[in-house]
Queue: 2 jobs
Job 1
Amino acid sequence: MRRNRLLYTFAIIAFFILLVYALIREMDRNQAQINGSISGIITATRAAGAGIVKTDNAYLMLFEPGTSYPTVTKVINPFLPPTTFFIGQGDSAAPLKGAYRLLVLSDKDGNPDRPALGEVMGELTAPLKLGTEAFEYVLDRPFQGFPKELLEARRKDPAMNILGTIDVSPEFKDQISAEDRLVIMLFDPKLGRPVAFRILENFSLPQDFSIGVADAMPGIQLKGPYSLRIISDKNGQPFESAPGELIVRSKKLLPLGSQGMNLVLDQEYQR
């Protein structure tokens, strides 16, 4: 009888030791998760929140400072603010360290690159250290495209652009005027239409140019290769030719990252 009591006592002690050990392990694991993440709550202003429905997605993105593409992306669905969030090491296959900028936007059609009616976003935050807790992120504006500073960073990255110089053939120099615009387009041969578009005003030939992912049309993810076309536009209608307009087309399809392109406006634009 006494032996049974001892065994029973040892079993209870062993159980509590294992329970305490499991709790400590779980606390350590939770603390490690907190230290490797940014967490808090997503809210919305009355105006921004009016268009959000429960079936919307929320896209959470972490950007390393100075970069233009997210290091980590997480989707919350269903999404209806206010809601808590947690993003970090658990959402990334690569190790994370340091601080990241957070961007959150709502999505209705499964394509976070293409703005749609009723979608909203917040600001691109200042860098937040991993381990940040109780951070309040506010959705406060319509989503009409990614923040300008991200687009500018993409414009400065040679790997995401096609770069070169535009000039005009001597025989057509007198057809270029100070009121003209240069319209630069990337055409997708598979789609048969332009997928990126940029306009240069107040230019001076020869003129350096770049066109790439920052100039993509809504919902288009540029991969390439593309046909490059440049038009001197006089009437504000680049798809309708006007007397005196000129055009040049690349002789081959160009991948993103192409540099040193020298294109000369040497044909009259007729459409």
Note: The longest strand covers residues 99-107.
Job 2
Amino acid sequence: MRIDSAKPASEVVIYLDAVGKSFGRNGEIRALEGVSCQIHDREFVAVLGPSGCGKSTMLRIIGGLIPYNDGTVTVLGHPAKEPKDDVGIVFQSTNLLSWRTVEGNMRLGVELQKLPDDKIREKVVTMIKMLGLNGFEKSYPHELSGGMRKRAALARSLVSDPDILLFDEPTTGLDVLVARAVLDTVATLRDAGKCVIYSTHIMREVERLCDRLAIIHRGRILAAGSQRDLLEASEQPDLEEHFFDLVSQSETHEKQYASTKTGPESEAGP
């Protein structure tokens, strides 16, 4: 299953073709299998799936953080072999540096660009105001609430003004109000023309935001397209029910396959 759209190929900024990823000493854990997609400039794509389905692995490969075993991955026309300044990543965990203040963590996002200090300061101040971090600039991560740590991590990823943003379940562990603030920020970035890939297991988070979505389970894309396309292809009344239906069917098929694979061996005598 591929994730494609009707936009011209010249606008493709992320390209995956038959990507596979395995973990374990002998590659016994298959995290992704045959994942293909084309994602275009200024597009918002949601990756929807249960925990452990391969969403995070897919985003980390796109971000150049981990290698892949099979296939091809290019980001902005270059192989995804290492992190890029043009790609910002927001993880489930904040990954803030404990020995740096909020401002220090944010500066880390632009220091590698080797900008003059006044330009760095200008970017940091703008992001502090945007995300409501005023008064917390000199605070260390352990002094912040979970919601404020998430805001600081988001600010660090945005301060370099990347063209592509990868969000890996960014509202995990947040209360309703903070989660809403994060989603409002994501919506602002979408409206500003950023290319966004947003992974989640909660359909309602992305219904109002995404141009297209992909449903992924056990490392495979089960369905992909616009919300209208997916609903038209479904017998379910809404996308959330369609999501549950596809995952259930996938698990049933895998159990049937496993039983046919082990059946003859279990029946064979000495």
Note: The first helix runs from residue 55 to 62.
